[in-house]
């Protein structure tokens, strides 16, 4: 079986919805000023889902993964690979993938985390595709899951209004028919300074800055340039035209980045899946959550050609083309 195909998807968002007005009121108690108008105009975000203080990434990931397994009609005994993308793991170790494996009662196969921030899901999906095509696995769970609210500085209005928590997952299985038809990944570590959470635990103490920091305008420029070139490159590599794409599922960071990208690539707005208004930026979870949303509401159908794109800290970016 030379191909790997998406056979199921799932998504999970924590129950607490925080609207822009809720957030503005909460931030005002800290003396931090923001507004629904500013957030919508600059980002397109209207609300986000925020996990309770004791909810870990693995809990969200387990729910999304179980939903994807049910959708694909597989059971725990079928899964022989779990790749989980996150920048907010439960622990330094074991990996969050191993915790999810145990939660789901999976007792065989490999499980590991991938850390590529908001590009994590496309990195994980590309890795799972390579495992399956090389014959190392037959049925993979590929998960993007984050509790980004844990690494936000709620006194920094330039970042704390942008993110939400959640998890998305897909099942990727060996198949006679395509499948993942193309992928390409990039990193430029020299740009680590424009978006990072540079703290760590050392000698039992938090050293460095535990919170996410971002140069928003530099990220904006880097994201649109990197993603437009990556979309063109993955199509050229896979022998398809941009006009062949039925659906674009970009990383959901900011509606202005998404609109700019669609325009630059000549992809009509009706073909672009947007969830940033409802979910905000859920980092590694954003692409699988958006994919799952559009599969479940009937927009993305079997046979459609889907372009998924991630971009984020590192700096990292990449694209995956999938025939559903
Ligand atoms: N509420 C009200 N005012 C704000 C807020 C806020 N939440 N945040 C910033 N401002 C103010 C600033 O203080 C500044 O005021 P000043 O002119 O008096 O100093 C003014 O708004 C403009 O600030 P900028 O940072 O220049 O605003 P900008 O237009 O660049 O918008 C944004 C900021 C939305 C972050 C933008 O740069 C952007 O979209 N960047 C892309 C980055 C992104 O989406 N990152 C997500 C994570 S990375 C990823 O997923 C790839």
From TrEMBL:
Protein role: Catalyzes the condensation reaction of fatty acid synthesis by the addition to an acyl acceptor of two carbons from malonyl-ACP. Catalyzes the first condensation reaction which initiates fatty acid synthesis and may therefore play a role in governing the total rate of fatty acid production. Possesses both acetoacetyl-ACP synthase and acetyl transacylase activities. Its substrate specificity determines the biosynthesis of branched-chain and/or straight-chain of fatty acids.
Organism: Pusillimonas minor
UniProt record similarity statement: Belongs to the thiolase-like superfamily. FabH family.
Active site: 118, 251, 281
Domain of life of the organism encoding this protein: Bacteria
Residues in Beta-ketoacyl-[acyl-carrier-protein] synthase III C-terminal domain copies: 235-323
Free-text domain note: The last Arg residue of the ACP-binding site is essential for the weak association between ACP/AcpP and FabH.
Record localization: Cytoplasm
Pathway annotation: Lipid metabolism; fatty acid biosynthesis
Cited InterPro entries: ACP_syn_III_C, ACP_syn_III_N, FabH, Thiolase-like
Chief localization: cytoplasm
SUPFAM superfamilies: Thiolase-like
Protein name as it appears in the record: Beta-ketoacyl-[acyl-carrier-protein] synthase III
Name of encoding gene: fabH
Pfam families listed in its UniProt record: ACP_syn_III, ACP_syn_III_C
A GO-annotated cellular component: cytoplasm
